[in-house]
Every structure is written in C-alpha cells, then in structure tokens.
Write a structure and sequence with these properties.
With about 375 residues, this protein is of the alpha+beta class. Helix content is about 55%, strand content about 15%. Strands 1-2-3-4-5-6 form a six-stranded antiparallel β-sheet.
Length: about 375
C-alpha cells in the first residue's frame, strides 16, 4: 500500500468512526429514554433495561453509517485540499481515482458492514428485542400500566391504576371491558395482585365490585367479591395478533411474503426488502459522489464551500428519492421497485466515470479561479 493511501485512509477512518458513534449515541439515547421510566418509577431491573436497549444498536448503525461516511469524506478531503495536500498529490502525477482510492477502500468495507447489518444482524437483534418486550409484558405485566392514566392495552379494554406499590401489587384499580358492546363490564377493586394462573397472568382483585349493564334493557347487575380473579389474556391476544415486523424478517422472507397476508402487507414487505438492499449502497454512493465533485476542477485557495453545498444538496435529493420510490412501491406501483436502486447505482456509475476521466464534466458549475503559479509549473515528471 502506498504511503499516501495509508495516510489518507487513517485520517478518514478516525472521523468516520467518531461521527458514526456520535450519531448512534444521540439516536440511541433518545430511543432509550422511552424505557427509562420503567427503571425509575416501575421497578424494571437495570440489567434487563440494558439488554433491551443494546438490541437497538444494529438498526441504528445501519441507519447512520451512510450519513457518517458522507460527513467524514467531506471533512477530510476538504481539510486535505485546504492544507494543499491534494495539490501536492496532483502535482506528483496521482490521478483523481488514485486520490479517491483510500475513500473507495473504506467505503467498500463500510458497505459490506451495512449489508451484513441489513441481511443478518438487524433481523436477529430486532427479533430478540421484540421477544424481550413481550417477555416483560408477560413477566412484568403491571409495568405496562402507567399510574394515573387510562391505559388501553388492546381495543375495547381500558385499565386504570391509581398507585403501584411494587411490580406485582396495584392500588385503586378500575377495568372496563367493552368487548361485548351490548353488555359492557366494569370492575373496581381496592387492590390487585399480579400472579400467574392456569391460563397465564391474571389480576387477583381484592374487595372488588363487578358491574354489568344490559344496554337493551337498561338493567344493571352488581356483584361484590372479597377476591376476584381477572384473566389478563389481552396481553396474549396482542402477542398473537401482532405478527412479525419487517425489521424482524430476513430479506428473503420480505421479498417472498406469505401469500396468506393481505395485498397491502405483502407490498409493504416487498418494498422494505428492496429498501434493505438499496440503503447500504449509499455507503459507497455518497462518498463517491463527494469525491467526483471535490476532486474535479482546479485548485482554489478560497476553499470549496460551493462544492460542499452541491454535495449536501445531491445527498438530500438521493435520500429523498429513495424514500419516495419506496413509498410508491409499497402503494402498489411496480415500476418504483427498480427506481429504488436508481439513485445509488446511477451515482456510483457516474462518479466512477468522473474520477476515471481526465476531463472535468463539472467545469461549468465549479469555481474556476486557479492559482496562477500552479498553471505555470513544469510537468510533474520533470520536477
């Protein structure tokens, strides 16, 4: 490996890793805050909390890697240009493709990581994340019920808890079951214990009142109990009805959805499967696009702010087009599926052509003010 390739590669890898970790930490923190209340107020063990939020990391890494590669490439190559190091490489006879070689090597490596996350680590980690969620729902069911508000775990079932004394002891509980609209049932109790019964978890209500109204006749029946078990099967109903999320499924399963699913769900899974294939390509497409723009044209001592702005605008357009075509594919527009690959694939092809070409296709759009002394220099091989 040539000295300059090793030098640029080291300079590029450090900010790429730093930006990636910084972005992941910021997003991870915002996601983790949703579960902090389970520790502070609801008694979820810290170890279980950490296991839960760590499983979110693969999806976050897959999301931020292209953005991190874009930012690090712009930063390092702008820095190299500002310090005239790129100018020296060009004067030594290194081509644009040669100068971009360290970036291409790192981008290919990150692209492989992106595909590994998309194809394996994302479905495995997210599947375990959902499994843990429902494990907590089964073993810490009362934690899912927030104090002082009307919780709706499933449609037509409402639960109110005045106070939680421990993970399995509740005070002042009200349950309204409207699964049979003609005969809704309301249960009220001074306290409740969460315990495991023969059919799963249940509330063991103490000093309870059961009220049922017949809407046709207006008759109200009230019963009083010292102890009344209430089956918490609504949690199991949610588990059975939820199905697998797209992030829990492997790419092959997404591209070949279950024919028993409705058409809308099948189209969404197919679009998600192609998106899992196209998004990692941005790890290569975005840095290549930056290289093609920033290395084209002549040296300008005033900086490359105009080129940087062009890079950012094109990146936003590429990402926006990707999401637009994905939504079109999910809505049943079959022509949008190949278009999902267009922004990244076309960008890669054009960028390689620009870098390999001795001409400057961006001459009309990029700054032309050059250093006069550079144009009067002797050819590199005679220096």
């Amino acid at each position: 490996m040539k000295i300059y390739v090793n030098y640029v590669l080291k300079n590029l890898a450090a900010p790429a890793a730093f930006i990636t970790c910084s972005l992941v930490c910021v997003v991870w923190l915002t996601q983790s805050l949703r579960f902090i209340d389970f520790i502070i107020n609801q008694g979820l063990p810290v170890y279980d909390f950490l296991r839960l939020v760590v499983l979110l990391l693969p999806s976050l890494f897959g999301l931020v890697l292209p953005i991190a590669m874009l930012c690090s490439t712009i930063y390092i190559y702008n820095k190299l240009n500002y310090e005239s190091e790129i100018l020296v490489l060009k004067a030594a006879g290194v081509s644009k493709l040669g100068i971009a070689k360290p970036c291409i090597m790192l981008s290919l490596f990150v692209t492989i990581i992106g595909f590994a996350i998309s194809a394996y680590f994302l479905p495995v980690s997210y599947g375990r994340f959902k499994d843990m969620q429902f494990y907590f729902r089964d073993n810490y069911a009362s934690l899912m019920l927030e104090e002082g508000i009307f919780n709706t775990p499933v449609p037509n079932t409402m639960v109110y808890v005045r106070k939680r004394e421990s993970a399995d002891t509740l005070k002042g509980i009200l349950i309204h079951d409207n699964k049979i609209p003609a005969k809704p049932v309301t249960l009220m109790a001074e306290s409740a214990k969460v315990e495991r019964g023969p059919n799963g978890l249940r509330f063991l209500l103490a000093n309870a009142t059961r009220q049922q109204i017949d809407r046709k006749t207006g008759e109200v029946n009230m019963l009083y109990f010292d102890s009344y078990p209430f089956d918490m099967s609504f949690y199991n109903a949610v588990d059975a009805a939820r199905g697998l999320k797209s992030d829990e499924m492997f790419i092959g399963d997404l591209l070949n959805p279950d024919p028993k699913l409705d058409r809308k769900t099948q189209l969404k899974q197919i679009a998600d499967g192609h998106n899992r294939l196209t998004w990692p390509l941005n790890n290569l497409a975005l840095p290549l696009m930056v290289m093609a723009i920033m290395l084209s044209g002549d040296y300008n001592r005033r900086g490359q702010s105009r080129r940087i702005i062009i890079c950012i605008v094109i990146s936003i357009i590429m990402i926006a087009l990707g999401f637009t075509f994905k939504n079109l594919a999910a809505s049943g527009k079959g022509f949008a599926i190949p278009l999902m690959y267009m922004p990244s694939v076309v960008t890669i092809i054009i960028s390689f052509y620009v870098l390999a070409s001795s001409k400057n296709p961006f001459e009309k759009f990029l700054p032309k003010k050059n250093l006069q002394f550079f144009t009067n220099q002797q050819p590199a091989e005679n220096v």
